[in-house]
Amino acid sequence: ARLTSTLVFAVAIAAPAVAPAAARSFTARVDRTQVGLDETLIYEATLTLDDGRAQDFKPPSFDGFRVLGQQPSQSTQIQMGGGASFMQIVYSWRFELQPTKKGTVTIGAATVRVDGSEQRTNPVTLRVADATGRPAPAPTPAMGRGFVDPFFAA
Q1: How far apart are CA 154 and CA 146, in angstroms?
Q2: Tens-digit pLDDT profile for residues 13-22
Q3: Distances from the Cα of 60 to the Cαs of 1, 63, 86, 118, 124, in angstroms?
Q4: Residues 57, 111: contact at Cβ < 8 Å?
Q5: Are 123 and 61 in contact (CB under 8 A)?
Q6: Strands 124-129 and 34-36: what pairing?
Q7: pLDDT tens-digit profile of 49-76?
Q8: Which of 50-63 are b and which e, b meaning 16 or more Cβ less than 10 Å from the residue's Cβ?
Q9: Which of 38, 49, 103, 146 could hold 131 in an S-S bridge, CB 3.0 to 4.6 Å?
Q10: What sign has the CA pseudo-torsion 65, 67, 68, 71?
């Protein structure tokens, strides 16, 4: 009886904990919900995973907008301590957009596959007003409209 209880205890300690299902969050947002025809805005789709890999990202159609630039990124966060570890992967797709028509505009869902399952973002609705008359901001190099190398002189 003593050997059996010792063996059960040893197996219970050595057995790995059951891993929870991979946490997933796939959301979309814009940096503002009101914009003028002569202004730009940032649309960002963000996928957060505890496990898995993103594949086949498809952005929304962006009807009513011109895509001025795009920037995908991926980051990994790892925490260890106290006998436990945690890893989270964050994928992000950013788009710089300029509206091409006035009114209330809804940007549909972006999609991505994670471990064979399709994930969808929320749609985003914003209001596009008349041109503001303010000068357009300078192009954002990080958004894919060119890279300025400060160490290279032309």
Answers
A1: 15
A2: 343 343 444 5
A3: 64, 8, 32, 14, 10
A4: yes
A5: no
A6: parallel
A7: 988 888 999 999 999 999 999 999 999 9
A8: eebebeeeebbebe
A9: 38
A10: positive
Q: Higher model confidence: residue 40 or residue 146?
A: 40
Helix/strand/coil percent split, the chain, to 5: 10, 50, 40
Q: Among 124, 94, 90, 126, which Cα is nearest to 109's?
A: 124
How many CB atoms are located within 10 Å of the residue 71 CB?
A: 15
Strands of 117-120's sheet, edge to edge?
54-58, 111-114, 117-120
Q: Is the pLDDT of residue 32 over 60?
A: yes
Does the pTM surpass 0.85? The reply is no
Whole-number Å distance between alpha carbons of 10 and 64: 63
Over residues 78-127, the pLDDT tens digits come to: 888 888 888 899 999 999 999 999 999 999 999 999 988 999 999 999 99
Going from the C-alpha of 78 to that of each of 38, 54, 120, 139, 149, the distances in angstroms are: 42, 18, 26, 34, 32
CA gap 49, 33 in Å, rounded: 27
* Helix (H), strand (E), coil (C) string for 60-101: CCCCCEEEEEEEEEEEEEEEEECCEEEEEEEEEEEEEEEECC
pLDDT at position 33: 95
